[in-house]
Amino acid sequence: MPKKKVENWIIYIIKAIVPDHFINKIRRNRQRNNFARFKASLRDNILTYYEANNDDEIKEVVNYLQNNSVSVFPYNFVKKYKKENIEVYFDQSKGLRYVVHQNKRLYFKRNMTDKAVKNLYYGLLLDQDKSSPHLYLTDTFNLDENDVVADIGAAEGNFSLSVIESVKKIYLFEPNEEWIAPLRATFEPWKDKVVIINKFVTDFESESTISMNNFYKANPDITFFKVDIEGEEQNFLNSCESILQQNIDLKIAICTYHKQGDEKAFIKQLKSHGFTTQISKGYMIYIYDKNLDVPYLRRGLIRAQKTY
User: Fold this and answer.
1) 301-306 and 250-255 beta bridge pairing
2) pLDDT at 56 (0 to 100)
3) Has residue 5 got a pLDDT over 80?
4) Which end of the chain is less congested by CB atoms within 10 angstroms, N or C?
């Protein structure tokens, strides 16, 4: 019997005898081991690539990696947070788990376990730490009571929840249907100033997508865009061309860590429309990009502003 047929027959027998949950456990362990090997190799590659670099920001990353495994945020501030210290609660009336975020309830997807909620919220805490390269707002780039926010890629809504009490209105754009119930639960106390749009923002219109140019025509009160849409940020900017050209007061915080060339491309595009730009402090290592390659380190986001 040919070798390939023998292998297929063995796999068939194993699947017939071994319980599915055990096979899935083996598969998960294999994936974790592969990811661990990938991270170890990536750490070595980064240290080798930057071993002679004298840039202070890069040296800080190198110093961290010399004593720690590679992570999205290669800085010591991550050690302030412990997953085991995160308290997860269950709202019986809504059937949803939540954490208390800045004295407000932040709800999560219905099918998420306590462990999954802790893992996600831990990442959110790292995202918006004062030392994070992913920090949207700063002391000099902030929001006030007159601002109207468009949260593009809201997910669980942690950013908007952090600013809900200090702004005039928020539009939440989130295409994943599973996040809609948690978002409604989270923002129920402020439902008079929050609008949830279950669509993906891009550069064309369809049943599931929306162009920001068209949305803005009907809602020209937006003064701030927060944009984190998993590598589709360029499409968002393309959908905003007529907005960017206008002589209006406008602020944008847009992520650049998903793709290597986004930082330079976005700065060029925004400056061409009269925006001043500032890159966030520090670097991220986007370990979830299977094509991550030199120079490995990426800026987290750009803060852009136009004032008239």
Assistant:
1) antiparallel
2) 96
3) no
4) N
C-alpha to C-alpha distances, 75 to 63, 64, 95, 171, 214, nearest whole angstrom: 9, 6, 37, 33, 41
Strand, helix or coil for residue 53: coil
Distance (Å, whole) CA 285 – CA 263: 14
Q: Decide: 159 and 226 in contact? Cβ < 8 Å.
A: yes
Helices (H) and strands (E) in the chain, counts: 10, 12
Q: Taking a C-beta distance cutoff of 8 angstroms, is the pair 227, 255 a contact? A: yes
Residue 111 has pLDDT above 70, yes or no: yes
Mean pLDDT in the chain? 92
Span 196-246, pLDDT tens digits: 999 999 888 999 999 999 999 999 999 999 999 999 999 999 999 999 999
Cβ(90)–Cβ(46) under 8 Å?
Answer: no
Strand segments, DSSP code E, in the chain are 89-91, 96-101, 104-107, 148-152, 169-173, 194-197, 200-202, 209-211, 224-227, 250-255, 276-279, 301-306
Of the candidates 193, 202, 209, the one whose C-alpha atom is nearest the C-alpha of residue 227 is 202
Annotate 225-260 with DSSP letters as a single string.
EEE--TT-HHHHHHHTHHHHTS-S-EEEEEE-SSST
Please choose, from the candidates 140, 179, 183, 139, the residue with its C-alpha nearest in 3D space to the C-alpha of residue 164.
183
Helix pair 20-49, 56-65: axis angle to 10 deg: 140
Cβ atoms of residues 308 and 249 within 8 Å: yes
Backbone angles phi and psi of 275, in degrees to 5: -85, 145
- Whether the bond between 295 and the residue before it is cis, its omega within 30 degrees of 0, is yes
Compute the distance between CA of residue 234 and CA of residue 131 in angstroms, rounded to an integer. 26
Residues present in the chain in total: 308
Tell me the average pLDDT across 127-131: 97
